[in-house]
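Review session, final week

We close the course with one last complete record, chosen because it touches almost every idea we covered. It is YqaJ viral recombinase domain-containing protein, a protein from Mizuhopecten yessoensis with 277 residues. Go through it on your own first, then we will talk.
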Amino acid sequence: MSDACFQNWSVQKLKTALRKRSPTTHGRKSDLVESELTNGSTSTVTGSTLNAALGLDTLKSQQEHYDCVKSGTKRKEPSPQVMEKMVHGTQNEIHAVATAVSKEEGRIKTESNGVCIVVSPDGSFVEEETETTTMAVEIKCPFPAQPGTYKPPIYHKVPKYYVPQILSEMYALNVESLLFLCYSQESTSAMHAHFDADLWSMILKQLEAVYETGVRPVRKSNQIVHLKEKISAYIDKHVKFIGEFVSVKGEQCPGKTSHIDEPFCTHKKAKHEVSTL
């Protein structure tokens, strides 16, 4: 198989494995998490709206979210600047996935009956034999700094406003950890986050306090300061920085790529169609 074909097949396998799993509920209320993308518009919250819904952002953004959920108020269209950032993130996600599947996990040393064994796995997201999800993955592609300004191109710590989202994803997928990737064209950072049941319980209770009472918030909850402190502590205690790596750029294969169970794909180059293995 050519390198290009293998990389395309690997990306398709990874993306399918990450998306086809049916989320479980951990015995809690599944309607508070983004169980399926198609239901995101009718749910109380989604992973990406948790920060605003909780009141961790501004009171105005929480009220706007509350009105949308409880009163059916139409959600405001994103500004052109926000839309530009959203499009940037979507378009660059494939490159972050390509970077992830192109990296080895490094050498792992083990011993068996006195024999030293060193292996270098290519990755571990889904248990192949049981087909159970073992780790969630969240990808961020920050919008580059404007000309004449500077900001770090990637994160080296998970931003506080993403913590509710990554906890919700681990909760929904019933996994204990998550790989957080942050991509730029030059480099990609990787962080390993672990699930914190106590913090997630606090988040659920705060959501329930706001969205099950039927009372629109008129001020920030007294618990928000404490919740923010817990989130800061979570980042220090439960998120480990793995490293920063040279990025790989992915390209959308123009051929038929519906195959994900076998390493076959069809590529079109110029006017000739070539099948590769």
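Two points worth writing down before the exam:
The longest helix spans residues 80-102.
Helices lie at 3-19, 50-54, 59-70, 80-102, 163-173, 197-211, 224-238.
Good luck, everyone.
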